[in-house]
Structure formats: C-alpha cells, structure tokens
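User: As part of a screening pipeline, I want to sanity-check one entry by hand. Below is the sequence and the SMILES for NAP. Please return the complex as structure tokens so I can compare it with the automated output.
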Amino acid sequence: MKIAILGTGAGARQHAARLSALGHQVIVGTRSPDATLARTEPDMMGTEPFAAFHAVHPELTLVTFAEAADAGELIINGIDGTNAVAALTALPAASLAGKVLIDYAVPYIYQQPVDPQHSWPTPWGEMPRLDPVDTDSLAEQIQRALPDTMVVKTFVTQEQETVVNPGEFGGGDHTMFLAGDHEDAKTAAREILTAYGWNDIADLGALAAARGLEMYAHFHTALGLALGSRFGVKIVR
Ligand SMILES: NC(=O)c1ccc[n+]([C@@H]2O[C@H](COP(=O)([O-])OP(=O)(O)OC[C@H]3O[C@@H](n4cnc5c(N)ncnc54)[C@H](OP(=O)(O)O)[C@@H]3O)[C@@H](O)[C@H]2O)c1
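Assistant: Here is the complex for your manual check:
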C-alpha cells in the first residue's frame, strides 16, 4: 500500500522505516524537503537531523506535505500537535478526502511561562500543557476540520519505537488502544498494528475517547520518568 507519513520527527521515522520494511511504499511529507534535508542540528529532543536518518533509509521518498497526502492511500499524521490542524487544513481537500488518517499527535503546548506553584520539571524542560483537553481532543478537531476523512486515534500511548516493535516488552503481551467514528479507519489501523506485532488492541469506541488517549500522555510521562526506561502497559480484564 502507498502510505503517506506527514512528519519527519522521531516518531514519524519509526513508522516510515518499519512500514517500508513491511513492504509498503512510504512517502514522507515535510514542509520543505530542501530545508528538512539541509538541517544539521538535532531537534529539542536530541533527535538527529533528518538527513542522517534518510542516508540510512534512501528508499523513503521525501516530498511536501501536499505531495505526500496526494500520493498516499492511507495517511499517518506525525505533524506536531500544535500545528497539525492548520497544516492539514492547508492541504488540498481532495488529497485527504475519502482516506483513512491515523493520528498519533499530542496537543502539547511547549515553553509555557513557569508558574512556580505548579511547576513540573522534566529532563527536557517544563512539562508542556495540553490544549485542547478535557472537553475536546486534537483528533476530534482534525475530524471536524476534515469531515470527508476517516480519522482514527491510535499509537499515541507509547513511544513510537515501541509502537512499531511491541515485542521489545513482555514478548509483545501488552495493550494498544484505538478510537474513532469510522469502522473502516479502525480496521485499517488494526491491520497496521497487527503487522507491527500487536495482539491486544483495545477499541475504546467513538473518537471522543481520544481525549483520554491524549490526556494519558501526562501519566505516560510520569511513569517513564519514575521507571527511567520505556515500558509497555497491559490491561488485565
Ligand atoms: N515520538 C514519539 O514517540 C511520540 C509518541 C507519542 C506521541 N507523539 C506525538 O506525535 C506528534 C509527532 O511526533 P514526532 O516525534 O513524530 O514529531 P515532532 O518532532 O513532534 O513533529 C515534527 C513534525 O511537525 C512538523 N511541524 C513543526 N512545526 C510545524 C508548523 N509550524 N507547521 C507545519 N508542520 C510543522 C515538522 O515539519 P517539518 O518536517 O517541516 O520539520 C515535522 O514534520 C507530536 O505531537 C508528539 O507529541 C510522539
């Protein structure tokens, strides 16, 4: 299948490399291919420049967001949460209409002024806050903005290294979640998750459940900082 990954960040790279290894034709989208390939500094999380990754994965095509969306039969949104709605709605509507869009972004707002009474320091700076939160989610915003696209929220509760390789913990015996209003989108997401190696996929129902998946990011961070390592989460029924 032709899969467009909109994004060049650390998570997007995991999906691009794994989906390509699984035999899919992967098209990676960015704002400007030239600018992305010209970067020489790591990003704020220490992720190496895209050119270094691309040198190891020359099979991946790097084009603009619009070209990638147009070419993809299925879309994965790896645009950072703050900018995702604006970037996606700037694309020609026909490039996304009728397609499944898997969204794993977190609507983090970074670099907030720190209120000392509510500080949550992390190794990468003050913990970002979520917006939207509680009564809305990024996934629902994307779905409302793109009514002809079938949005499904998944992948978001793990580091993407773990998403594409669940077997690294407990032999893969842990749980991945998805939510969405379109059964076809959930089926497509489930097929990718199964190919990645997920056996336990919990369907949380309508896309409104994406609020919980996005808000889980705070708990995931707290767990990660406490454990000092990546981990899997298993739901015991
Ligand atoms: N990495 C993970 O393991 C992980 C896990 C769970 C959730 N998430 C969430 O998933 C999302 C993507 O994560 P990621 O690690 O793959 O990438 P990321 O580093 O968070 O985002 C990078 C992407 O966002 C695009 N971008 C940045 N500013 C933009 C703007 N003003 N307009 C349009 N696009 C813009 C960049 O475009 P260019 O390519 O042009 O630079 C790049 O493609 C984030 O919300 C993140 O919090 C990540």
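Points to compare against the pipeline: The mean pLDDT is 96. The chain has one domain: 2-227.
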